[in-house]
Design goal:
By secondary structure, the protein is an all-alpha fold. The chain contains 18 helices and no strands. The protein has helices spanning 3-10, 31-63, 66-102, 106-133, 135-141, 149-161, 163-178, 183-206, 210-235, 252-284, 288-304, 306-324, 328-362, 368-384, 388-400, 404-427, 434-438, 440-468.
């Protein structure tokens, strides 16, 4: 039996007949207030996830060698890409569960969850085999510097061994978001964050295990998060869906629906993540210091992009529930509120990052040469802070509307027709800086925003024609 299903069965059978929770309803009440109350716990959850990912690099940067920093930077970027891919695929569960809750169909929501678990059990097995057996190949593909090659392989292989926990956590998170519960993931990841911090300090600072110790601490934290989530579900007496062991079956129709909606988002996340991996590979050819600098900058970016990322996840669930309840106007108003508030925060983060990004980089590395390279790269991301609020909110809106194929299309266009070509061409110039290479990211975001605006206008025109008919 696949390990992911075994984990869910070990959590104990969830009884049928739970009462509907009013607190999970995103289709009623003040739009801005409801969206903010749902998005804030998502934001805090993402912050803690970024924190326990960033703690790895922070502790390694303070207590290990530059080669370990590069190994963790490259390995964690691969892990982040894998996590983004799993999160994208799990979006199929969030969308379908949100729609069923909006339509007041708790039995159907339970079927979606059961089919989704079975689908992701297969994913967990495949992911484990690829990352454990192919760790060296993946490190080679990423052009890991020779000085940091062994550290990169260790990090990838250890994280691959814990892939089941990465998958299980994202499945649980997708279910919670779909039912409108953003507080439970916040609680579980808070506990995981504490575990990871203590694990890093013990294994990296105490036992001097470098990149391998950071990887072990990360896997242990994810495992704790999953176990706590199971305990919460088992103790809860009220859920807005009906679920039992009978739902845990390989229902091809349900699994196909989850895959149909989630696969385009997952592929888009994979290809976008791959584009950043390719940029990392381009920079790795410049040496270990620029490699570590980009790794540090990417960790900083995981924090400065938190607000638009939170809105993207929240918007998907919010829009899915309201589309299920046949209330598209409420969904569009939420899109406007999300763009306005995240854009205000993005402006502040962009200004600070452009002028004092070195202070943020110093948190993750004590090597001043690495910090200087990171700040150069971060200046380009500071520009992107003004653009991603629009892109991420639109992406969440389109996901909730089941336009996941378009989400995939615009992501691929931005990554492979703009970001990678621009980064590669700029890297060929003499005396190229990381700032110039980093400009490939806001360039691709501009193109993606233009595509999103065109798609939104097209959808509005189609809706008006349908109403007129």
């Amino acid at each position: 039996m696949p390990p992911l299903i075994q984990l869910f069965l070990c959590a104990g059978q969830i009884k049928r007949g739970y009462r509907m929770q009013k607190t999970s309803n995103l289709t009623e009440g003040n739009i801005f207030g409801t969206l903010i109350r749902f998005a804030v716990p998502v934001l805090l959850t993402l912050f803690l996830q970024a924190l326990y990912g960033g703690v790895d690099l922070l502790v390694v940067g303070q207590f290990a060698q530059t080669a370990d920093v590069s190994g963790v930077a490259t390995g964690s970027m691969l892990l982040q890409t894998v996590t983004m891919m799993i999160t994208g695929l799990s979006m199929g569960i969030t969308i379908l569960v949100g729609e069923k809750i909006g339509k007041r169909q708790p039995d159907e929501a339970g079927r979606v969850i059961g089919g989704g678990i079975c689908l992701f059990a297969i994913v967990a097995v495949v992911l484990t085999i690829v990352m454990v057996a192919g760790a060296e190949m993946l490190a080679r593909l990423m052009h890991a510097p020779e000085e940091a090659f062994a550290q990169t392989v260790h990090y990838i292989r250890i994280c691959g061994a814990g892939a089941v926990f990465i998958v299980a956590y994202n499945v649980l998170g997708s279910v919670f978001r779909g039912i409108g519960d953003s507080k439970t993931p916040l609680m579980t990841v808070s506990i995981a964050c504490v575990v990871n911090i203590f694990g890093d300090l013990l294994l990296v600072a105490g036992f001097h295990m470098g990149a391998a110790g950071a990887a072990i601490a990360t896997v242990a934290a994810q495992a704790v998060s999953v176990v706590v989530s199971f305990l919460v579900i088992r103790r809860r007496t009220s859920l807005p869906f009906h679920f039992s062991r009978a739902n845990l079956r390989f229902d091809r129709k349900i699994m196909g629906s989850v895959f149909r909606l989630g696969a385009p988002v997952s592929l888009q996340e994979l290809l976008v993540g791959t584009s950043f991996l390719l940029i990392q590979a381009i920079v790795n050819a410049f040496g270990v210091v620029p490699s570590a600098g980009v790794g540090v900058a990417e960790k900083v970016c995981s924090f400065i992009m938190l607000v638009p990322s939170a809105y993207m996840q929240s918007m998907s669930a919010f829009v899915a529930q309201n589309m299920g309840a046949d209330n598209p106007l409420r969904a569009k108003k939420a899109l406007g509120y999300g763009i306005a508030t995240s854009l205000a925060v993005g402006f502040l983060m962009g200004v600070f990052t452009f002028f004092r990004g070195d202070l943020l980089a110093l948190i993750f590395s004590k090597d001043l040469a690495v910090v200087a390279q990171a700040h150069s790269y971060l200046k380009a991301y500071a520009i992107d802070c003004l653009l991603t609020p629009l892109l991420f909110c639109f992406t969440g809106y389109f996901n909730g509307c089941e336009k996941t194929l378009f989400v995939m299309f615009q992501g691929i266009v931005g990554a492979f027709l703009v970001r990678i070509p621009v980064a590669f061409l700029v890297s060929r110039f003499a005396d190229t800086t990381l700032f110039e290479i980093g400009l490939a990211t806001p360039a691709s975001t501009c193109v993606q925003i233009a595509l999103c605006l065109a798609m939104f206008i097209l959808m509005e025109r189609r809706n008006r024609r349908e109403i007129e008919v």
